[in-house]
Amino acid sequence: MTKEIVDQLAILGHSQRITVFRMLMRRFPDRVPAGELATELGVKPSTMSNYLNALLRSGLVKQERSGTSLLYSIEMKNVQQMLDFLIVDCCRGRPDLCLPSTKGSETMTDRKFNVLFICVGNSARSIFAESLLSEIGGDRFNAYSAGTQPSSELNPFAVQVLRDKGHDTSILRSKNLSEFSAPDAPAMDFVFTVCNQAANEECPAWESQPISGHWGMEDPVKADGTDAEKSLAFQNAYGALKRRIQAFTSLPVESLDRIALQSAIDEIGRASLEETK
Hints:
alpha/beta, 48% helix, globular
């Protein structure tokens, strides 16, 4: 066991391999094509193949085939085993020494929780999520959204869908993610990425240590066809996010500890993946 974990740590000791590992962790539970990883990190496909093969040999990453594509994702059981070795064995189970804080075993307090949804443009998907959570869980959650590269205005198809569903759109605007890393910004309890590109990008190191999740989905802004076909793409995105938000708000956030909450949020992400198969 010790040799296996030493080998895993040695593989992660390479600056580019750990960058690939970190990106797959941000995308968990997604299965990501090798070509997308190579493009996002700006490396040659052959070089990316070498990095992924090393991570596969370590057991920290797994590979699946979908048609002619090879998809990669985190093998979370082995990652947890590696971390358990470091924290339980090497650190003798001393979270006060080996973890950022002791919040990992605490339940959330009985208050309204701050939730941030992130995508690139903050013009459709994250705006949908903000509006839906405000309506479905407004008594328990404060909903926010932001973009890593926000648009100057909201997508008109998205705005129309929200109006048709009875949401107040007058309070909505595109916001830059930097607003939520400012000193006076609200401390986040949950942070969700709702597009793959945003998940691929480095986000701020949140001082509040929020629970995070990735609920990637197709971008309705990229839909082709007639206005009716484009509108349908936005309707579908709204519906998919509504199911995720309903699942999230049904969680007993106040009584679950962080580990159980993270597991539940990851499961919502897995269910989302099953919808697209």
